């Protein structure tokens, strides 16, 4: 009976979001309340679980996501992304332009959310395609691949950060393992796969929606631009070095642990970048702060969706659903990481949004993670990989690709959907390989 209730709740959630077009936050909240009642929880306990789940989930990730949104906005408006793109194109030349685009997407994709990165980088894609007289998808797909992988796999993006919080994974290990998996996924699904797309779609030598690029003399330096994107990762990694040189000296250890916290790393990066990319370039502080306000508005709905997904997760936890699911997994021959990927991939196909699929899977899979002895860092990556599988007509990213590149639905399925599926499957293979080696 418990499993039937779970299946009903998931199907109801899918129906509300996809068929009834109910806002995802409301859908999660409605299903969470109904699930608690169906599981036989007292009404007061249901409300308490919803409040706890929403508060605990947002409390652990909201600051990082907001700071990440602000940093991404600054990187976009300052011209740092434009500088990185130009540098990569000059470094690699026409012969390896697809690798230049992939690396650009990789670096810029660390602080930028996918949709923001897409809108920001599309004019650069069209400009490069025009300059080198190359097919549009051949040039653009590697960059979109890198943006998608960073969005789905690695912190500080919303879904990975939420998963790290829910499963109590190690952010540094998850990022490190994610890089190991992300690099081959980006290369194979990006530059390699793009060679099959040369005859798909228009040449893309004109793009009416391109925003005016900043003059070269107004762009920040290349070192400043790259460091502004990578500094959170650099700070977290550097914070682990003092223990190597100073051993277990309490003060040094505590200070290093403090700087290794993602919140501290993101805040320091934002403070430094506010000066180097903003104030130092003559931009008034008031305008920078206005940009930060807009950045938070852009991700406000993402935050409350993540919170409501946490509420549903808490209902599953407090209803002791985990004991039932753990028993099923023990008797199953399926590898728990494969199970996590498959469950998330199914949710992705049904729900469309990678973020919603990931946080939904976290709620369903949370109980079994602590019963199966699975590596939680790899579990985060397995769910992240599954959340990218099979993007199609119910995903806004699908339509962004179709409309901006002037493709038919069939061409978009042949290019974008296949690329997303490749990234997902390669990610799964990487997760299983690491699980075998570790």
TrEMBL record:
The record ties this protein, via InterPro entries, to:
Glcn_transporter (IPR003474)
> Is Membrane tagged as a keyword?
yes
By sequence similarity, the record places it as follows:
Belongs to the GntP permease family.
UniProt membrane topology term: Multi-pass membrane protein
Q: Which UniProt keywords apply?
A: Cell membrane, Membrane, Transmembrane, Transmembrane helix, Transport
Enumerate the subcellular locations listed in this protein's record, separating them with semicolons: Cell membrane
Q: Which Pfam families does the UniProt record give?
A: GntP_permease
- This protein is called Gnt-I system high-affinity gluconate transporter
Per the record, the domain of life is Bacteria
| Organism listed in the record | Mucilaginibacter pocheonensis
According to the record, the segments passing through the membrane are 30-50, 57-76, 96-129, 136-154, 174-193, 230-252, 258-278, 299-317, 337-366, 378-398, 418-437
